[in-house]
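Case study 2.
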Amino acid sequence: MRIIAGEARGRRLEAPAGLGTRPTSDRVRESLFNILGQRFDGGLVLDLYAGSGALGLEALSRGAERAILVDRDPAAAKVCEKNAVTLGFAARVEVVRAEVPEALRKLATRGLSFDLVFLDPPYAEGPGATLERLSSLGIVAKGGRVIAEHDRRSPPAEAYGSLRRTDLRTFGEPALSFFERLETEHP
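Prediction:
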């Protein structure tokens, strides 16, 4: 695994040991960022089920201002911290070791609003419950984007409150659903 573009381009990332994480492949990550755009002009990024933190760190390399990486696994959280230090991003990264629902509740109480959210839950869990929480807690900025990785055979719904799916791409077994926070809610 490596950073694909931006200031840390080509730098290698460590991945958590074992089978507890399923890292997003370089190919899928590259496609994801081709769709989002090559550069970001600041913004706050949230990487849920972060694993190595590759998605949030890639966004930082491409110009995002800050990133919060969330993973419940202590080994994954340590790898996220190590990768942030290795890339020189430690001052711009906060690692939260907690279950995603708990982390989202705490982030909401801090009044944070995210411009870009990545979520890559276990395929068996799927992204639906987390998308619902993100919408109900109101922590995605207006016009903010949420990208959910999931099994192509189990896509999430078209909308979750104010989050509306704008695109769906498949890459073999994995698929990416792109959501945007709209001004009004849709059924």
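The domain at 27-92+103-154+167-181 is CATH 3.40.50.150 (Rossmann fold).
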